[in-house]
Specification:
iron ion binding, NADP, 373 residues, FMN, two-stranded antiparallel ribbon, three-stranded antiparallel sheet, globular, monooxygenase, 17 helices
């Protein structure tokens, strides 16, 4: 191994909230190694399939709310996708309901609001020098620190309540409380459980929300693609209620999501550091521990791989035969190696379910007054 992940940018800022979670800890950190060995199996295919009914529950809530608005009411897709993904991951991981689609006047659960706020603030901080954050934006920083402390306190209370009153439920929290590291025999420390639960809630909801928001954007911008997705979903489902087994019969929908991730990767790059002095690509000398930013957005739009139309939305290039022929590292929205996203099966199952349910129940119409900036 020549390089290891270096938490930088927004990840470095969000670390103030989630501590040494799976996304933010350095690979050399023993906490990361133990958590990685314990948590990775918890996101295996069979366990994620078992979460389907909870995912469907939240998606049905959103669809019912949309139906009650009627055909003439415009919908804020981004806001709805944030509520959908945050409610879903909370129910699947900690058996907690934010009930975002039942709240009056579009209000948000305080915990959910804090989760969204600290994520947004972390990105804002990462784009500014520290002296601006600490001395010019001191009110925003003070609010950020208050919300971070409150999120950790509430998460600790939730874990304590689960320990005192165990429930017979196969969710992530129960698994994290009981699972042991196969290498050392250790369980996750209380601090590590808090770190990783907050990591999944904060980082996990935002990335899938971005994927779904851009997916619906591309579907509305490409009516022929939307029509193909609807035809595929309608053919597979007919008059049946969607089940987890239906998803494997929707290859075009999966290709649409892959293509969306290629063009609009929620995490378009990440930092690494060389483990020793090295030369990259035969001509770039880099020093040990020198921060390097890997820009996957450029890789995903490389014309030598994707042709002259690399910037165009074309799901057909992501159908199985074409997708399997892509060069290694040509498509990396879930990152790379041992630091690849453990939540990939969760995110893809949730995204496929959400798009399938929406296009099966509704005919989507583009709001011409809305433009992407």
């Amino acid at each position: 191994t020549r390089f290891c992940k270096l938490p930088g940018g927004a990840l470095d800022k969000i670390k103030q909230v989630v501590g040494d979670g799976l996304f933010t800890a350095e690979t050399s950190n023993p906490k990361w190694a133990i958590a990685h060995r314990i948590v990775t199996p918890l996101f295996g295919t069979m366990r994620i399939r078992g979460m389907f009914d909870d995912m469907k529950d939240i998606c049905e809530q959103m669809c019912l709310r949309w139906a009650r608005f009627g055909p003439d009411e415009p919908l804020n897709v981004c806001d709805n996708m944030t509520k959908l993904t945050l409610d879903t991951i909370a129910l699947c991981t900690i058996d907690y309901r934010f009930n975002s689609f039942y709240r009056e006047n579009g209000s948000t659960h305080p915990f959910a609001e804090a989760v969204v706020d600290v994520m947004t603030e972390s990105f804002d901080q990462s784009n500014l020098p520290d002296f601006v954050n600490n001395y010019v934006r001191f009110r925003s920083m003070a609010k950020f620190k208050r919300q971070a402390a409150e999120l950790r306190r509430q998460t600790e209370d939730l874990i304590a309540a689960r320990r005192q009153n165990p429930v017979d439920r196969d969710d992530l929290l129960n698994a994290m409380l009981s699972a042991k590291d196969p290498k050392t025999g250790q369980g996750l420390s209380p601090e590590s459980i808090v770190d990783n639960l907050l990591t999944f809630l904060i980082a996990g909801h935002e990335t899938t929300s971005s994927l779904l928001s851009f997916c619906f954007y591309y579907l509305l911008e490409n009516p022929d693609v939307l029509r193909k997705v609807q035809q595929e979903v309608d053919t597979v489902l007919g008059s049946d209620t969607i089940t987890v087994d239906h998803l494997s019969n929707m290859p075009y929908l999966e290709a649409v999501l892959r293509e969306t991730l290629r063009l609009r990767d929620p995490g378009p790059g990440f930092y690494v550091k060389p483990l020793r002095d090295d030369v990259v690509a035969g001509k770039y000398a880099v020093k040990k521990d020198q921060p390097l930013f890997i820009v996957f957005d450029s890789v995903h739009r490389d014309e030598s791989t994707y042709g002259a139309g690399a910037d165009e939305f074309c799901p057909e290039r992501m159908l199985k035969d074409s997708f399997d022929k892509l060069p290694p590292c040509a498509w990396k929205p879930f990152w790379n190696g041992v630091r690849a996203c453990v939540g990939r099966p969760f995110a893809m199952q949730q995204a496929m379910l959400a798009v399938a349910m929406v296009v099966h129940k509704f005919d989507l119409i583009k709001d011409e007054s809305c433009t992407l900036k």
